[in-house]
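User: For a benchmark we're assembling, each entry needs the component sequences followed by a predicted structure for the full assembly. Here are entry 17's components. Please fill in the structure.
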Amino acid sequence: MTTQTSINRTALMFTGWAGPFQVVIWSLGFIVFSGFWPNIPSPSASSEEIASFFWDNTVGMRIGTVLMYFGCVAFCIWGASVAALTRVGERGIPVLTYAQLTLVGCGGAIGAVNFTLWSVASFRPDGLSPDVIRMLNDIGFFFLLWSVPIFSGWCVVVGISIMCDKSKNPILPRWNMYFNFMVAFMMLPGSLITFFHEGPFAFDGFFGFYIPLLVYGSWVLLMSWSVLSAAYKLPKQEFNS
Amino acid sequence: MGLIMNQIRECKVILSENKSELHLPGEVGIWVFIFGDMLMFAAFFISYISDRSDNIELYNLSQANLSINMGVTNTLILLTSSLFVALGVNSIRKSNRKNISSMYIALAFFCGLVFIVNKYFEWSEKVGNGLTLTTNEYFIYYYVLTGIHLLHVLIGLFILAYLLYLSSLDSAVKRYTTFETGATYWHMVDLLWLVIFPLLYIVR
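Assistant: Structure for entry 17:
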């Protein structure tokens, strides 16, 4: 740790654990309750099929979207922990930390809207036309997957802040920079979902759906590990100051 | 492949010169990056081969629209650029040959530019003939694979430009690992094309 900045160990641990928590609670919502996987509502499906996907499982969908929403909040809290770590290595005005926090805020807002729309889609079964439901589904998936540039951008900023950290014992190791650049690349196929209704690059395809989500989840877990490793190395706080 | 043999030879020289521990060219991190990137491209290639086997006739018919000459030209350009990069990095170690290394890296950069210009002409010819990203499954793969590769080449140009700047400094020889790291990235870009080219242009 540098002598210039110090971090509260408990705060860093709390925010760091928000990462795995985010992954678990979101997956619970997305898979177990809402049922978005493995029966991903396809972009090539008809409006009636999509509407019945939302209307046949209203309770599960509603619970799932609530859980995903909390996952989104956990994401924002966790994002701060990564930014805090890179802040340690930044000298002077922490521009790259600012950049990260704006991207985290952006990602969080998009998540919040995303799950709201899916919840609304199940709010009035039979009360809306199936075309509207399909559009809500589409927008939801676009927010989920087409938003990869925000997260790629975040990875690039984290990578650059590690690159600029010239201290003797950087808090985030050098290979982490390359890992972040790699993740930034790997998530990019998500940007292609706007071109296709079917195939591997559509939002239910291998490169449109699986790659962005799996890469993102792995990145969250690995960065959480980095944050928590740094946190556990910090000295325990004394409560009488 | 000769370039890779060259690199391996370099490793062996350094090994015998110095310590007995293994020397990986460049920083460890670049190999982390390359591992992940290779995984991604392997996924692309497997996906392509799998989808192609379901529709061989369509793929072969579409492939006939490609210019093999253009593909071969691009392959030669990238191979030459890799040679220049290897020569440039090699001459960094000889600190009195700084200008030579700058020249080699500049030549490699120029090759990269030529590749991009070629790609522009190749794509605009196809688009002019009505063959776009969504024409059929083959062309989805064609544009996505060559597009992602092109993005790698563009980033490689930034890296080469940085190496070019570094090679002009007096402290260039101290940054040898940085040169190796950048060179490794560029060789990876070349290697990717060596797989993409036969896959898209030749395999029937």
